Amino acid sequence: MKNINFLFVLIFGLSLGLTSCEDFLEETVKDQVSVDYIYNSPAGLEVGVNALYNQMRFYNLPSGDNNDLWSNVFFMVATDLGLHRTWNTPYGTGHNPQSYTGSKWTQGYKIIDRCSAIITSARSIQMDDAAKRRLVAQARVIRGELYLDLKQMYGGILIDTIPTTPQNINDPVEYKVASDADVYKLIDGDLDYAIANLPFKVDPGRYGQGVARHIRGKSALWQQDWAGAAAQFDAIINDGTHGLVALADVWGQNGNHKESLFTYQKDFLLGPSDDLAGGGGSWLSSVFTHRTYELNTSELVQDVAYGGQALGWFYPNNYLKSLYDQANDLRFKTYYYSDNYLDYKINVPGNPKFGQPITNPAIAAPNGNYRAWHWSLKKYHDTEKLPMTSNSYKDYMYYRLAETYLLASEAYHNLGNDGKALAYLNKVRRRGYTGNPESTVTTFDLTAWTLNNYLDESARELAFENNRWFLLKRLGLLVERQNLYFRSSPSGTISGEVQLKMTPAMVNMPIPQSQIDLMGKPAGFNVGY
Predict the structure, then answer these.
(1) Which InterPro entries does the UniProt entry name for this protein (predicted)?
(2) For residues 361 and 292, what is the distance between their CA atoms, to the nearest angstrom?
(3) DSSP output for 260-296
(4) pLDDT 10s digit of each residue in the chain, 529 long?
(5) Residues 6+ away with beta carbon under 8 Å from 7
(6) Cα separation of 77 and 494, whole Å?
(7) Which end of the chain is more exposed for a tag (fewer CB within 10 A), N or C?
(8) Which long-range contacts (CB under 8 A, 24 or more apart) does 227-234 make?
């Protein structure tokens, strides 16, 4: 009997992308793959694992404008570092089980179910044992990652390792919130297996030991296992497979460099749709960028150097801006589009001032116009983005070593070793001030490890990278800091900025109402909604 079923009907005929799976090594598209083939043959097992990557890319990097995009953008911007202008409003009237997107919950559990199917079926497949373990390890990293994701987002969650089959889909269902101990036991067991069976060096778009240890270290931090977290992060840092790269290369066009622990692969020629091998066009490069070309159409046309087609829905806020030493910290102009109008040149052919600086936006729009002009994010800048479109097919770095260093710093501080904690913190900071990942310049080093120093340096390095929301929640600071600094400007002007209040209940995201109703509204979910 299936003790804990899912909150939706799973289509057992492999609706999770197995009709067009991605093989990142051979870039082969599979069509109409049978269930028997997937779960009963060595080649099918590999196809099944490839499909998991395809679905994880959709889970974390969907194409277009939809609730799936919003489910990711929310965690990138709805923190103490963000400013909302339009589109969905964080912590607004739609932040409830009836209205908020259920994408992460439903997609997460669907992929978990397919991970479990692969893990279970592999036991009976006759094939090279080492090859089998490596495939299973990838499925177990993904399952462990998703359970940690769901735990961080929702608080009370269900766990289940029995895959849905035609034989058990109608079995009695028990909807029960799993204990923290049981959740972390499952997460850590999956990740420990992966660590034991994956190499550090893998091909782009594959999970290796580095990302498995990184996620395992995060799990340890949530459990306040500081020694366990430090050991995982040290193993990544000391192995040498991964290393910090030059500052200019971190968010350059190549996302598959040494600093990347894992990068989602995109390829227009193999797409352009989420259910095809190349994936659909992502809007991330447009969501956080101002539309400079709307300032003065006689002076500016769309230019990829200034972001190209843009949306200007969300921006970094003035609090984040205040954290940078703008004169010396190179990240200020590397990670963000300049907000100095002198850096933008008139590019309309025939304009007599072609190549000269544009008109000062403060003169052109004295009351402010956030849509056309605001300090904005450059991390997802795509020099190859197609003109007049928000679609980007740039590979998307999702986990990187700079975060490993910063999390390791926190772990060592909690172990009472501030010398090691500062060494790791300043490793990242020196790169920020010099551009050189191997810099030994101590001029701008932090000399004391404090929580504020740590949070500020983490913000300067990792802003808008899908980690701040979770870090603040883990430290118990999310509501306090979001209410202090997060702002919304529905009018798109300085004078229109307002505070959006986050309630304590919102530290656990709203489970979709349809799923709550199906469960019979059991205790333990969505406290406060």
Answers:
(1) SusD_RagB_dom, TPR-like_helical_dom_sf
(2) 10
(3) EEEEE---GGG-SSTTSTT-PPB-HHHHT---GGGT-
(4) 354 444 433 333 343 343 333 332 333 433 444 567 678 899 999 999 999 999 999 999 999 999 999 999 999 999 999 999 999 999 989 999 999 999 999 999 999 999 999 999 999 999 999 999 999 999 999 999 999 999 999 999 999 999 988 888 888 878 889 999 999 999 999 999 999 999 999 999 999 999 999 999 999 999 999 999 999 999 999 999 999 999 999 999 999 999 999 999 999 999 889 989 999 999 999 999 999 999 999 999 999 999 999 999 999 999 999 999 999 999 999 999 999 999 999 999 999 999 999 999 988 665 678 999 999 999 999 999 988 999 999 999 999 999 999 999 999 999 999 999 999 999 999 999 999 999 999 999 999 999 999 999 999 999 999 999 999 999 999 999 999 999 999 999 988 899 989 999 999 999 998 888 888 877 778 767 7
(5) 105, 106, 109, 158, 175, 515, 518, 519
(6) 18
(7) N
(8) 227/411, 227/415, 229/407, 229/408, 229/410, 229/411, 230/408, 230/411, 230/412, 230/415, 233/404, 233/405, 233/407, 233/408, 233/411, 234/408
Amino acid found at 24: F
> Is 332 within 8 Å of 343 (Cβ atoms)?
no
**C-alpha to C-alpha distances, 161 to 108, 120, 525, nearest whole angstrom:** 13, 9, 20
CA distances to 86, 106, 124, 165 from 117, in Å: 41, 17, 12, 9
Measured between its terminal Cα atoms, the distance across the chain in Å is 32
| Six token digits for residue 453 | 């120093």
In the block, tokens 């101990």 appear at 181
Q: What does the alpha-carbon distance between residue 410 and residue 418 come to, in Å, rounded to a whole number?
A: 9
